[in-house]
């Protein structure tokens, strides 16, 4: 089957990346999954029918290849950490080619035609681009507090020999600041890392509860590193049910939630 995903079901980042950089993010539309996973679920470990997920992944491969070349996708087993894959490394590439899903929460690449990919369903996908290189990071609160953006950015800059002022970043749809209520422990984890992170939290309804702004936390991390070209999508995965999967909204209510994918690559 493996039909292409309709372009109307995709998000193309509204940003100004360097020449030769391509990027897109899927929504929940355009696939074959049913129930809480309807319809373009790209997460294998979600409880969805594996055959449906494989069909959805095939549709994404067809879509990526329609951009003028066969684009290989580097899928990761994400654990809310900071480990970053070097997709230029030959051993890593052979493992991926053999079908291994490597544990990591970010990747970077300077090889044309190899897409850095992150899955998300409330966590924030972060895409980074410089002349000659790209990176993607899976930034939920644990990854952000641990420094996943910092690690991915550092690896990308070291490899490409570029400076932070050459970086263009895109912060994708995620759980919004009016939907992401957290406890003191989460707020403390960020403030202990950088005191100015306090600006990304506002008091919740109950004592000891706070509303966290993931896009602002991501922007602060990038700006501290010297990145000033930051574009934010701003849409909330929780409130826009027609467009996005949301783990927080659907897992307990419906018994499951699918995953979207954000992809970035260099033209071959």
TrEMBL record:
Keywords tagged on the record: Hydrolase, Metal-binding, Transferase, Zinc
GO MF annotation list: copper ion binding; hydrolase activity; S-methyl-5-thioadenosine phosphorylase activity
InterPro entries, alphabetized: Cu_polyphenol_OxRdtase, Cu_polyphenol_OxRdtase_sf, Cytotoxic_necrot_fac-like_cat
Pfam families linked: Cu-oxidase_4 (PF02578)
SUPFAM superfamilies recorded: CNF1/YfiH-like putative cysteine hydrolases (SSF64438)
Recorded superkingdom: Bacteria
Catalytic activity: adenosine + H2O + H(+) = inosine + NH4(+); adenosine + phosphate = alpha-D-ribose 1-phosphate + adenine; S-methyl-5'-thioadenosine + phosphate = 5-(methylsulfanyl)-alpha-D-ribose 1-phosphate + adenine; inosine + phosphate = alpha-D-ribose 1-phosphate + hypoxanthine
Keyword Transmembrane helix listed: no
CDD domains the UniProt entry points to: YfiH
Family: Belongs to the purine nucleoside phosphorylase YfiH/LACC1 family.
Name of the protein in question: Purine nucleoside phosphorylase
Gene name as annotated: yfiH
């Amino acid at each position: 089957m493996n039909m292409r995903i309709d372009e109307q079901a995709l998000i193309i980042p509204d940003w100004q990346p360097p020449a030769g950089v391509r990027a897109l993010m899927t929504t929940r539309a355009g696939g074959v999954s049913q129930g809480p996973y309807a319809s373009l679920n790209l997460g294998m470990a979600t409880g969805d029918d594996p055959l449906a997920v494989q069909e959805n992944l095939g549709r994404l491969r067809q879509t990526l290849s329609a951009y003028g070349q066969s684009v290989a996708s580097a899928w990761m087993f994400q654990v809310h950490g900071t480990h970053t894959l070097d997709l230029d490394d030959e051993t890593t590439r052979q493992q991926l080619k053999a079908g291994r899903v490597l544990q990591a929460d970010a990747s970077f690449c300077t090889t044309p035609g190899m897409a850095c990919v992150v899955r998300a369903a409330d966590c924030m996908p972060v895409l980074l681009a410089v002349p000659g290189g790209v990176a993607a990071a899976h930034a939920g609160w644990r990854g952000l507090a641990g420094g996943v953006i910092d690690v991915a950015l550092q690896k990308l800059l070291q490899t490409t020999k570029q400076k932070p002022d050459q970086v263009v970043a895109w912060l994708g749809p995620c759980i919004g600041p009016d939907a992401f209520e957290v406890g003191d422990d989460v707020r403390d984890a960020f403030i202990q890392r950088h005191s100015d992170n306090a600006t990304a939290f506002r008091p919740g309804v109950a004592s000891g509860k706070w509303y966290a702004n993931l896009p602002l936390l991501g922007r602060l991390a990038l700006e501290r590193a010297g990145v000033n070209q930051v574009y934010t999508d701003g849409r909330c995965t929780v409130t826009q049910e027609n467009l996005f999967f949301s783990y927080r909204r659907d897992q307990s209510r419906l018994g499951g939630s699918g995953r979207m994918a954000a992809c970035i690559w260099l033209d071959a």
